Each structure stands twice: as structure tokens, then as C-alpha cells.
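Risk register update: the risk of archive-format incompatibility is retired. Evidence:
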Amino acid sequence: MLKENLYQKENHPKLIVISGPSGVGKDTIARKLIDTDPKRFYFVVTATTRPPREGEVHGVDYFFFSNDEFAEMIESYELLEYAVVYNDYKGIPKQQIRDALDSGRDVIMRVDVQGAATIRKIIPNAISVFLTTETEDELVRRLVERKSETAEGLKLRIAAARQEMKRIKEFDYWVVNAESQQKRAVREILSIIEAAHCQVQQEPIHL
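Archived output:
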């Protein structure tokens, strides 16, 4: 009988879920994580029925679909999770995640707080990170400066953000994305990922 090789570390690709209220910089931090090592990390592209904002590119920022196209994906079980967010559908296509994990890459996913809760139920060993600003005032200012909402829509997002902050304890980690300190937030998340790869007990991600 062969002896166990104690010097062969078990390692599996990780799924990192970055979440938090609107305006905290989830997209920016996720992209900067990818930029640190594009060959190591894969960024999950979310599907949505909302129209693209100025500068957004289909297949890069989001997959933009019509309501009928999105309904077809739901019917064919092509989505890991989906939900209605501010009257539009958002969801995560599964196959891109499978392909990335099979290639040995760590997968980075940015989702809203509601979506993160669903992901945790489906994939309990995913690493969940709650991203936030230093203060509520800073969060409100960022939402106002985006100028992507009507006055009524902005009020709704601010109210939703306050409620989402109350769910922070549901997550594994909490990282502050302070103004002009994005590099620090990226370093902290990279440290979290490195620690996960050093765990003695590791389980592969199953979809």
C-alpha cells in the first residue's frame, strides 16, 4: 500500500463572490482583480434585461438580452441564479463558470446582495466578500454622482442600500473600498484568495 504523500498539497480553483450595495464599486474592484493576473482569474459576465448604459459593451460588462431571450435561458436551466433587480432581470450563465473552473482558473463573480444569498445556498464553499464604502454618506454621494437614475429611482437605491448593509454578517469577509484606495481593497481580496488556497481541507466547486 502506497504511503500518503504529505508533501502534495490539495488545491482546487476557487469561486469568489463579490457583493455589496449599489455604488460600492463591485465592478471596478472585480476588474482590477482580473487585471492583476488575467491568466489566473476569470471574470463572470452577468446577463441582464436592462438596456446598456453609456460605454457598456455586450459580453464585456454584461450580456444584454431581451425579455424573451432571458425567458428562454430560464426555461433551459442555463442560469446559475436569476432575480428581478429594479424591475429588470439579472442572472448568471452557468457554462462560462464550468469552463473557467475546468481550466484551473479562479472565478470572480460580482452580484447584488440578493444574488449572493442564492449563490451561497447553491455553492456553500464559494468565498463571499461584502464590499462597502467607509461611510453611508460616501455611498450616497457615489450613487448621486453616477447620474444614472431618476430622483425616484435614486431614492429607491439608497433605501435598498441601507437594507443591504444589514446583511453584512451573512458573508465570509468584509472589505472596505475607500475613496482613492482601490489598490488596498484589491490587495485585501487577493490575500483572502491566497489564504483559501492554503486551507488544509479544500472541496472542489460543483455546479
